Amino acid sequence: IGHTMITDSEGHLYDFAGYAPGSGRSGVVKDVGIFGSAVRVLRCTPAEGTSQASFVEDWDKAIWLGNRQSERKVHKGAIDNCHSHICAVLRATNRAVFPRVPEALGWNILVAGFVMTCLADWVPSPKGMCFRTWFYLWCCFMLAWIVLRQNPMHLII
């Protein structure tokens, strides 16, 4: 699916890299995208009836809680990963609304992956354009691989 990161209300980036026991360093790094800059973004807005100040306070508190929860977690690939980190933040916030994302879904690593793949906006940049092109080519390649793998007789003439 890809790597996910999250920002606070001031634009500081938080990225879960995984804790290395004995290193003394947090598993969450600040203002560093360990796999480069973002190419997709999911924007949130304050819930109806929520002031901007309350929204910012709630968002930053959720970021702090998610970072605190993840700072001593070892990266385990399919579990306890960057998606788990952002889901911890998104579950902790009460005043954020994500357009096009039904609230009933809740936040887990599968929902986060689906939402970022299908509903997030592309970041307008040359790097984002390159990734966008390769992303769709990769999807076409995988679809062709799955179809041909089901019936390899298509390859015999």
What does this entry look like structurally?
With 157 residues, the protein is α+β, with helices and mostly antiparallel strands. It is 41% helix and 11% strand. It is built from four helices and seven strands. The chain has helices at residues 52-70, 82-92, 109-118, 126-150; strands at 6-7, 13-16, 28-30, 40-41, 45-46, 96-97, 121-122. The protein has a three-stranded antiparallel β-sheet with strand order 1-2-3. Strands 4-7 form a two-stranded antiparallel ribbon. The protein has a two-stranded antiparallel ribbon with strand order 5-6. Strand 1 and strand 2 (13-16) form a beta hairpin. Helix 1 (52-70) packs antiparallel against helix 2 (82-92) and helix 2 packs across helix 3 (109-118).
Structure summarized in a few sentences:
By secondary structure, the chain is α+β, with helices and mostly antiparallel strands.
Major beta sheet summary: 3 strands, antiparallel
- State the end-to-end CA separation: 35 Å
Q: Biggest sheet: strands side by side, in what order? A: 1-2-3
The overall strand count is 7
The count of helical stretches stands at 4
- Pattern of helices and strands: EEEEEHHEHEH
* Unreliable stretches covering 5 or more consecutive residues: none
Strand content: 5-15%
Percentage of residues in helical conformation: 40-55%
**Structural class of the helices, strands and pairings?**
alpha+beta
Oligomer: single chain
Rg (C-alpha, Å): 18 Å
**Global shape:** globular
> What's the mean pLDDT score?
83
